[in-house]
Amino acid sequence: MKKLVLSIITILIIGACATSSIPTKVLSEPDWKPSSNSDTEKQITISSINFFNSSLAPFNEHFEGIGEVKIGGIQLLKTYSSILKKRLDNKVLLLSTGELINENQKGGIDPILKEFENIGVDAFHLSEKELRKLPISKIDKYDNKFINSNIIDLKKQSPLSSKNIENHTIKTIDGVKIGIMGITTFNNAEARKHKYLNGLYFEDPIYSILKTHDLLERKGAKIFILMVKGHKRCPDNKCESTREEMEKLLKRLPPNKIDLIIGSEPELLNEKISGIPFIQNSGAGKFLSRVDLYFDTKKERINTSKTKIHSPIKLCSEFFTATNDCHIENDYYMKGKIELIKENKEYMTKAKFLGIEI
Hints:
Blueprint (H helix, E strand, L loop, with lengths): L1 H17 L22 E10 L8 E5 L3 E5 L2 H14 L4 E6 L11 H11 L3 E3 L2 H6 L2 H4 L6 E2 L3 E3 L4 E2 L5 E2 L2 E5 L2 E9 L3 H4 L8 E3 L2 H14 L4 E7 L12 H9 L9 E3 L6 E5 L2 E5 L6 E10 L4 E2 L5 E2 L3 E2 L3 E3 L13 H9 L5 E3 L1 E2 L2 E2 L1
Parallel strand pairs: 1-4, 4-5, 5-6, 6-9, 11-13, 13-14, 14-16
Antiparallel strand pairs: 1-17, 2-3, 7-8, 7-12, 10-11, 15-16, 17-18, 17-19, 17-20, 21-22, 23-24
Helix pairs in contact: 2-3
């Protein structure tokens, strides 16, 4: 009998421990907690968007029994990125990868480029997708810098370039030079099927990375960031994952060449791949990714043990009052979270990011 009672008590204790509270602050960071660094350390934050896909306007996300919340869009992106720069004393790089323009876009490209000019993105990645929808004349019309490291102009025998398209760029943050490059894994056999790619050659991405890395290093860069447009292989209609594609690519890359990779697919992936931090969110102008890198000024390199990969921030116009976020996942907690939100007479409140109201 004693054993039976003890077993029941044990089960109850285990059950209580296994029952977690309703998740709050999901994909949000409403509070501001300034970090402190040593005298020989500099925090450098890299933030990014990917697969913007012409998403100028916000999305109305509907939550059953609660209502709608405006998510994403260019104005919320501008607000959130401005807050990030303000909080971190402009020690921030903002980058954009992957399909800036929707492939079915008909006109209306100028407003997109103009709005991004006002936001102040440090660099956009130029891949074959941008070349399809973005005439170089449009790119050169606005003050937005595009990076292309491995699409070669055969006439010039050098990477495709123009007034606003460069092979690489260097940005200086808090005295540290950061080299930025961008490659696509698009292959030449596929490129030959498209007239808009006539006269262009897609150089081996690893060769381009090594060549550009050495050039950036000679120019004094200490941190190296790679923007990637991937192309998954699908043998027997079974596509490899982004992680698998990157692992295959990075197997060919010598160590200590890249400090951060920013992906371009509309898929959440926030982790280290082959030891290198990799960030990518679900895109459509709804999220802002970021990584904190810590540069050791004595050793003149990244202290990888301190690298912090943040969860992407969902660009909310409002929060659920009870949970300080605007995200409900279709999971075990969904019903409980909705009930918790409804307990408040005022379901919604203004969103906050890093302690500042949106």
